[in-house]
Amino acid sequence: MAGEKKAVLITGCSAGGIGHALALEFFAQGYRVFATARRPESMAALTDKGIETLVLDVTDAESIAETKKEVAKRTDGKLYMLVNNAGQGWNQAVFDTNLADMRALFETNVFGPVAMMREFAPLLLAAGDARILQMSSIASRLPTPFNGIYNASKAALSALSDTARIEMAPLGIQVIVMVCGTVESNIWNWGTLSDDSLYKPIDDLYQKMPEKMQENLMPTAEFAKIVVKESTKTRPSAWVWAGPASWTVWFVDTFLPRTAIDLIFGRVFNIPEWKKRLQGKS
Asked: What protein family does this chain belong to (predicted)?
């Protein structure tokens, strides 16, 4: 139909997060937005704006299938863009990792996006010039202490997206990786170290880490404007580095050896003090 709005589906649109801001920005730019989250009450503000909201759990195959069926019915079987934004944060040292928690994190951050791509492929193919936007992070390129599992999930998402970009190009689907810098988010819950953690002697230093990691955060609304602008270009970049610290990370990751990055992080997070305490020297 002439003049029909292009449909965009966004996962993880709970209030206060990036997905919520993306829904508002895409809507403001004239797109038909399907905002999704596990809890409908978390999207009340979007509903009030006239944005279509749907309940979706990206770790539940039945939920994904039902959402696809509903979107197909409302859009005549077409979807211009799938934004895989839903994600979870996790803070735990690799040596302390609970494998059940790790698997749950990968279910949301990695397996969920793959399941969404598979299910919504027919709608994307029907749209013609379709896009899949994968919300990755600079964390995928950084050895941030206690973030290893989260970092790994974002690295996995970025890697599989690179392959998907090549595989889907002949089908007319563009895959874009958004490498997010330090942006406001509601996915982190920084608690205390467990009593049996190998790192319990540095619990006070651990508690101070969020201050270093959350300096100069970009507001989600400002970040959303960049994301929408870049992802809707006729020929978007394969990887888009956006948000505070993103270009610094790109430079460091591209031109410095890994050992240099380790030294930088050692200074930022005071690793020499860790060593003293963990080896019982202070």
From this structure: Belongs to the short-chain dehydrogenases/reductases (SDR) family.
